[in-house]
Design a protein that fits this description.
Number of strands: 5
CATH superfamily: Glutaredoxin
Strand order of the largest sheet: 1-3-2-4-5
CATH class: Alpha Beta
Strand content: 15-25%
Number of domains: 1
Helix content: 40-55%
Oligomer: single chain
Distance between the termini: 31 Å
């Protein structure tokens, strides 16, 4: 997973990481199988991925973190992974998988 940047050293709730405007941003937590799965899928598809590890945020102030995500996503979302693409909220594992499948379908049907 060479193209995944891990920002696991942030612990201060004032320093929440906002989604990147280029590529995928994955908010993940330890022990999350879908976080691991989607990181692997995106890496295999050579997508740019920034991972933000959220364990410390959840331990220190879960409500503040969820409020931060709600503000970014423009909806309440409490399931990991929390995924953005090019700064726009996608959803979780299933929604990202669906987006990738649509992109693949589009790519296969285009010929020049």
């Amino acid at each position: 997973m060479d193209n995944i940047i891990n920002n696991s050293n942030q612990v201060n709730l004032d320093d929440h990481e906002k989604p990147q405007t280029n590529g995928f941003t994955i908010y993940s937590k330890s022990g999350c199988p879908n976080c691991t799965r989607i990181k692997k899928i995106l890496s295999e598809k050579k997508q740019t991925v920034v991972e933000i590890q959220c364990d410390e945020y959840l331990i220190e102030n879960k409500e503040s973190f969820l409020s931060f995500i709600k503000n970014l996503a423009q909806k309440e979302w409490k399931v990991f992974p929390i995924i953005f693409n090019n700064g726009a909220f996608i959803g979780g594992f299933n929604e990202t998988q669906e987006l990738l499948n649509k992109q693949l379908c589009f790519d296969e049907n285009v010929s020049f």
